[in-house]
Design a protein that fits this description.
The chain contains 1 helix and 57 strands. The chain is mainly β. A 3-stranded mixed β-sheet has the order 47-48-50, with no helix packed on it. A two-stranded antiparallel sheet has the order 1-2. Helices cover about 5% and strands about 40% of the residues. It has 3 domains: about 15-100, no CATH class; about 130-330, no CATH class; about 350-530, no CATH class. It starts with 12 loop residues before the first strand and ends with a helix. It is flat and about 95 Å long.
Length: about 575
């Protein structure tokens, strides 16, 4: 049976069987002010309301909007997210429902393939289940995004072709990740730009720039089209190339041939040692008579660590742009990129992604890994965004993983294998998609499931909610812990902290960490106040003092000092009597 609290100390408050502090998470998400072990100000903007009546159960000063039990008399509403407190002991009035539900005063599950729906109707979808696309408030198969719509795989919705002016038919280009118009009706023609963008233009006036040529009155084509000169950038006609695309050498007006690897321009086609300028992300080096392009961060060529784009046109190499996972330092155009803020070079797909999966190494150093991939076709596998072919049998979609296969475990949005780092820093062994043995600094919550996080950091106070509204969490600042016992009812149970970070020690109950400078203290109750000393020391006024032998308490030292004075005084008296009195005799 899991231990629950019935009363908390003055510095904490009681909530659903646990003691929490208002100054740290998760307590600060529940209550903003407490007194005498009870919450006095509930955080009502976070899905709770203040009990208007005298609580019928300990710790029910604040009640969750979705808690249908409450204190027995005052309660929430099933599946409610935010609510208004009742005037007396009764049910709250729901204002908004949880995601996946529709309504206000009562909450109805969204129907069909809806993941979320409008407040007014459970049948009007706003997002869809995996594999379905949103089209006019309904969830449909990808094949139904046809003719006047295209399937946007990024937003998982059917987008109208009319977003491109005059376009009547379109598709979605997976390479450019843009809509591609395929038909502009009778009066206009499709025009494709170098970056893949398509527009509808008047063939007589809209196809006169240097990147295009007219194919009679039927089409406006890029210079590099198969009817023009492949790999040509600018031209004066269908077979008259004036400039080739970056990376290609103009042999003649009808031929563009690839330069060597990484060259933007070159003096000889197909030769990597005849570069004149480099593609973005590379810089030119000269070795004897050869000129080649090497990556900006090439260590063997004196590149700049973590650099994505660079320039050495003025004699010295300068970094102009750091990789997405590196923090730029220094002046613009001359950056250093030494501070790594994510282990994924793409920063999990840039601003659309998230690198919030924190893993600690054996020394307690933090490393950040992908928790969400900005590209919907990539997923967090072993901390970095991997393509669909590298999912290794894990269940992932829309940039995140939801279940893991044998040998892997789910951790903060991604699947990690326990057999090697970084996963092995969290979990020593994994069974059927769940962690079965946690690494030092982590714990496995009771009855873990493959669709939930099965390994938690001892220092994670937010935790994870498993089945039946049972949640398990770590302790803020904790470095070593033991897992909590299985909860028998809904609520939250925290791990028992056995060791804390540098300069801090756990309290005797293992529910918190406090600053503790006394090397002889085993457990500190609050900052600077010891509640249990190490062997050989005793507690006096919140401090640890020695108890005997080489380690004596202040009382023992005082007693021994007095005894020593008595003994020495007696000895001096005896010697005086001996020499003086005996001398007279």
């Amino acid at each position: 049976m899991a231990a629950t609290c019935g009363k908390c100390g003055s510095e904490c408050f009681l909530f659903m069987g646990g003691c929490y502090r208002t100054g740290s998470q998760p307590g600060s998400e529940i209550c903003t002010a407490a007194e005498g072990g009870k919450c006095t100000v509930c955080k009502t903007d976070n899905g709770l309301f203040k009990n208007p009546a005298a609580p019928q159960r300990p710790g029910s000063e604040c009640i969750l909007c979705w808690d249908t039990e409450g204190d027995g008399a005052t309660k929430g509403v099933k599946d409610c997210a935010t609510c208004t407190a009742p005037q007396s002991a009764a049910a709250a009035t729901c204002k908004t429902c949880k995601a996946g539900f529709s309504g206000t005063s009562s909450c109805t599950p969204c129907t069909g393939d809806c993941t979320t729906c409008t407040e007014s109707s459970p049948t009007e979808c706003t997002s869809c289940k995996d594999g379905k696309y949103l089209k006019r408030s309904q969830c449909v198969a990808k094949g139904e995004c046809t003719t006047d719509h295209y399937p946007d795989d990024t937003g998982m919705e059917c987008v109208a072709c009319s977003t491109i002016d005059s376009c009547t038919q379109c598709t979605f280009d997976l390479t450019t990740k843009k809509p591609k118009c395929t038909n502009c009706g009778i009066s206009k023609k499709v025009k494709t730009e170098l970056d893949g963008t398509t527009t509808c233009v008047d063939i007589a006036t809209g196809c006169e720039d240097e990147n295009h040529f007219k194919d009679g009155d039927t089409a406006c084509l890029l210079c590099g089209d198969v009817k023009g000169v492949p790999n040509c950038e600018t031209c004066s006609g269908a077979k008259a190339c004036t400039k080739c695309l970056p990376g290609f050498f103009r042999v003649s007006e009808t031929s563009c041939t690839a330069c060597g690897d990484n060259c933007a321009t070159c003096s000889e086609a197909g030769n990597a040692n005849r570069c004149l300028t480099c593609k973005s992300g590379f810089f030119l080096i000269t070795e004897n008579e050869s000129k080649k392009c090497v990556p900006c961060d090439s260590k063997t060529d004196d590149g700049i660590d973590g650099c994505a784009e660079c320039d050495n046109s003025k004699g010295s190499l300068k970094c102009t742009k750091c990789k997405p996972n590196r923090k730029p330092a220094g002046k613009e155009g001359d950056y250093t990129c030494t501070v790594k803020n994510c282990e994924d070079d793409t920063l999990c797909g840039g601003t659309a992604g998230a690198c919030n999966a924190i893993i600690l190494d054996a020394q307690g150093k933090e490393f950040h890994y992908c928790s969400f991939c900005g590209e919907s076709s990539k997923f967090p596998i072993d901390g970095v965004c991997a393509s669909n072919g590298d999912k290794a049998g894990n269940t992932c979609a829309d940039g995140v993983c939801t279940q893991c296969t044998t040998g892997y475990f789910l951790y903060m949005g991604g699947c990690y294998k326990a057999a090697g780092p970084p996963g092995s820093l969290v979990c020593k062994a994994a069974g059927d998609g769940v962690c079965t043995e946690a690494a030092a600094g982590y714990f496995v919550p009771p009855s873990p499931t493959k669709d939930k996080q099965s390994a938690l950091s001892c220092s994670n106070p937010l935790g994870v909610e498993l089945a039946d509204q049972k949640a398990y969490a770590g302790v803020e600042g904790c470095s070593r812990c033991t897992a909590p016992a299985q909860l028998e009812a809904s609520g939250m149970a925290a791990a028992t902290c056995t060791a804390c970070g540098e300069g801090r020690k756990p309290n005797k109950s293992g529910t918190g960490c406090a600053a503790c400078s006394d090397a002889n203290c085993k457990h500190c109750r609050v900052d600077g106040v010891c509640e249990e000393c190490s062997s050989g020391f005793s507690l006096e006024g919140g401090k640890c003092v020695s108890t005997g032998g080489p380690n004596l308490s202040t009382g023992a030292i005082a007693g021994i000092s007095v005894a020593a004075i008595v003994v020495v005084g007696g000895l001096v008296g005896f010697l005086c009597w001996w020499f003086i009195c005996r001398g007279k005799a």
